[in-house]
Amino acid sequence: MNTFFKCLTLGVGLAVAGIQTSVAQKAPEPLPVVFADVPDLAMIRVGDTYYMSSTTMHMNPGLPIMKSKDLVNWQLVGYVYQTLGDNDDLNLVGKKNAYGKGSWASSLRYHNGTYYVTTFSSTTGKTYIFTSKNIEKGPWVEHSFKPSLHDHSLFFDDDGKIYMAYNAGRITLVELNEDLSGIKPNTQQIIIPNASLPAGTNINLQAEGSQLLKHDGKYYLFNITWPRGGMRTEVMHRADKITGPWEGKLAFQDLGVAQGSLVDNAKGEWFSYLFRDYGSVGRAPYILPVKWVDGWPVIGDNGKFPADLNLPASKGLIPGLVNSDEFTRKKSDPALPLVWQWNHNPVNDKWSVTDRPGYLRLTTGRIDSNVLQARNTLTQRTFGPTSSGATSIDVTNMKDGDYAGLLLLQKKYEWVGVKATATGKAIVVGDGQGAKEVEAANIPINQKVVYFKADCDFTNRADKAYLYYSLDGKAWTAIGNELKMSYTLPHFMGYRFGLFNYATKTTGGYVDFDYFRISDKITAKK
């Protein structure tokens, strides 16, 4: 391979997270190329630009599109949909929610001048195909049909037929109608009865996450599987015809890095994009070199992670994937930058960046029981190895029973904020690490503006977080319990910073967030 890849260093990994280093030192193990939750990635190259889609499930807007010139530095350019549907799960109605659901693994294609992004949802029971002539600006046209085809891969064959390969274990192929309205009758067929077989017979997670491509006249299908007692593993199959017969091989089995496919550059060099479960920060992408040997792609160093892997210089995740926001807007600015996503479907008449210019206003519109069921929580990714989020809140107009503040969002959560009661206000901590949320601190206050900060430490998978408050925005005091962050399947997402406001007694109260400032620096622990 060329010198594009020679050594993955700790210096590179830290730079990816926003810390620029001048001296590269070998890391004890390879770090992600993007140290944040960007799972189920699908990728294409158009000219000299790479585009990537990913899963954000219950977050909205959804199905993010990112672009890069070098496979390392990524920038959000848009979302494919604003909301996926309108039902109780997606709207957090009653005790229902879409945590870990919503929309899952996407497929991304460019064909005859049109971009195609697909996804599927058990929450709505549909398969979605979105089309646009402009991947960065849209608009996107939705085509949807039932049923929901699990972990599918869209594929345009040379004969003009349109296919989807999908399912877990028994990989199934269907042909789609030319207008993308659904599946052509009598076209469903199982093309690989046991796609997990290259990884053995004792399988915990059956092969899924299909990614289909064609190279030098042959078809290649990539899947992730998980042998029982082993690690996430990438398997691959190839065939002369899309209907088979297919022959399989183990593609990559090292460090649990798996699920993805291949992409080439303009020079004809090939790379594999995969992700890894990286603790509570989420599922993080890796890029590996690929060479073709006897008609098979060889990922990494003969199927293992290379000892040395050189990556282009990183500019960090700020401002491409996460960013600070002072909430000041020009008339030409969007109401919210792309780095923000709502937890579930938003209620658009209960938030504003214009009611009080320079502030994000969140107004309560219903009674909620806890922060996980609260509407209009605005979120951004956390990232590694360390990340910090801070905010200032004007709490003047909170009502009795209101809670507002800064959240670290996952099933095991913690937040610091203000509780309003009939007798006054207090800074409190909501600790959701156990079966029930407990109030871990209570400090009465008598002022309009308070400041909060949350620090996350993902270094060597420490997965610890700490909360702070300030009365002047300068001197910070630790508060509450250490949050032992944990990646849980019910939420299926890395931790996120969240700004929230919800009511437990009376609606109509509101808070004004002056800013949200994100950084790769955290407070040193003594």
TrEMBL record:
Keywords in alphabetical order: Glycosidase, Hydrolase
GO function term, MF aspect, one: hydrolase activity
Domain Beta-xylosidase C-terminal Concanavalin A-like residues, every copy: 333-518
InterPro entries from the UniProt entry: ConA-like_dom_sf (IPR013320), GH43_C2 (IPR041542), Glyco_hydro_43 (IPR006710), Glyco_hydro_beta-prop_sf (IPR023296), Glycosyl_Hydrlase_43 (IPR051795)
Assigned protein family: Belongs to the glycosyl hydrolase 43 family.
Protein name stated in the entry: Glycoside hydrolase 43 family protein
Organism this protein belongs to: Mucilaginibacter calamicampi
